[in-house]
Amino acid sequence: MGERQDDRGAADGRRRCVHPGATASGTAGTADRAGLEELLALVLRDPGGGPVDGSEGEKRAVAAFRAARDTGAHRARTRRRDDWRQQRQRRAARSLRATLTVAVASLALGGVAVAAIGTVGSSDDVSAARPTVRASASAAAPGGHATAGPADPASAPALPARPATAKDTAARCRAYEKAGGKGRAMEATARQRLIAAAGGEDQVGAYCAHVTATASPPGRTARGTTPAPGTARAKARSEGTDGSPGAAASNGTQGKGQDGGQGNGQSDAAKPGGGKGP
Amino acid sequence: MGQGGEPRRAQAYDGELGAAVARAQGGDEAAFAVAYRIVQPGLLGYLRGIVGDDAEDVASDAWLEIARDLGRFQGDGAGFRGWTATIARHRALDHLRRLRVRPRSAALEQDVLDLPGPRSTHDEVLENLSTERALALVRGLPRDQAEAVLLRVVVGLDGPSAARVLGKRPGAVRTAAHRGLKRLARQLGVEGVTDDGSRTLGEST
């Protein structure tokens, strides 16, 4: 405020004429103002009332204090407007809170990242396990792989990319099936992608059947042993619907079915014989 | 200048006030009474400047809230002044809203304007200045200036605290207080003192 005062003093030409030097006029103004403040404080701070009136209000205030204390109101939480600690303290408290928030947030994000690593790792496991299963299957029945149907070559190069896209494609397929092949019901982009992936609109059905079959591991092992791809598809399809409680499966239960399929994939890779069963 | 005069004087009590508040928060009702006695004069002066004769009632309401919410408060003596002033201000604004009455009337300024001669000294002004007249002068100021002056000078808040009570930027409140004091000085004729009485005033600080 002192600098302000100096500025005002400098702006005020009259004072400067009387007192040479901005600082001199500044201190004079300060003294003047301080005197006025003191005067006002003296006159206004203790207006009229008197001690009797004060003690009346005091009694009331103390009674209210006692009531609040005895009812436990004084244990209430401090709100922001009740925090009148020094700016520095408050800032320190705030920065502590900010630090904690950042720490918690980074932990949470870190957790997500770790979880993501886990997901990628597990799907790698699946795709790593897959060739062995496939190899053994094709070794057992040499013709099986060749008869796997038109969609199979498309899925063979797609296999390395499977971890990223398999779920999407499967989801699109389910949506496609649900929509019954009618265009509007499905989101246009997703539909276009699915058609592109299948290599033509009329191929979508077959492609989807294949994707569903490969997404659920029993179908994968079954495909190797069964000579006709059609039955493999049908089998996979039926298994897929068996996994969900109702025939008219909602999205939620389909999602569960997918998760179950992944889970099976891991366990199934360990014991491929289970897939060959009924 | 802002930190001079009254705020510095108020700080002398702030240690005592802070200790009393801390004890009161621990449940000591005598300490709460001590805090009341330290804070009430300034609070009442401030409220008189806003709501006039209803200040006692408004202060009473404010103290009920202060007594109830004391446990929530965090801070030292100076902080307690600010906190209580905020509560008092809210009660005062509620009161005004209920009454739908302007805090100032133009008639006041007429009484106020019979100024002393421009050459009167600080002591003469002090002798002649009654509470009523000072109050009338302050209430004759624009509202923001009056509140800024009262909070700074009468309640004894520093700039940032006064700004927080008023919900404004510190710079705006500083300007308002400055303008208000300047206008009061002119109305009281204290400004004339600057030329011939600056030496005495300089010593008085």
UniProtKB/TrEMBL annotation, chain A:
Domain of life assignment: Bacteria
Identification of the protein by name: Uncharacterized protein
Keywords: Membrane, Transmembrane, Transmembrane helix
Low complexity: bias regions: 21-30, 137-166, 217-233
Transmembrane segments: 98-121
Composition bias type Gly residues, residue spans: 254-264
Region annotation Disordered: where it falls in the sequence: 1-30, 66-95, 137-169, 213-278
Statement: the UniProt record of this protein carries the keyword Hydrolase: no
Basic and acidic residues bias spans: 1-15
Originating organism: Streptomyces galbus
From TrEMBL, chain B:
GO terms of molecular function: DNA binding; sigma factor activity
Keyword match Membrane: no
Lineage of producing organism: Bacteria, Bacillati, Actinomycetota, Actinomycetes, Kitasatosporales
Name the record gives this protein: RNA polymerase sigma factor
Sequence ranges assigned to domain RNA polymerase sigma-70 region in this UniProt record: 36-100
Keywords: Sigma factor, Transcription, Transcription regulation
Entry-linked NCBIfam families: sigma70-ECF
Source organism (scientific name): Streptomyces galbus
A Pfam family reported for this protein in Swiss-Prot or TrEMBL: Sigma70_r2
Superkingdom of the organism of origin: Bacteria
InterPro entries, sorted: RNA_pol_sigma-70-like, RNA_pol_sigma-70_dom, RNA_pol_sigma70_r2, RNA_pol_sigma70_r4_t2, RNA_pol_sigma_r2, RNA_pol_sigma_r3/r4-like, WH-like_DNA-bd_sf
GO BP annotations listed: DNA-templated transcription initiation
All residue ranges annotated as the RNA polymerase sigma factor 70 region 4 type domain in the record: 133-184
Family: Belongs to the sigma-70 factor family. ECF subfamily.
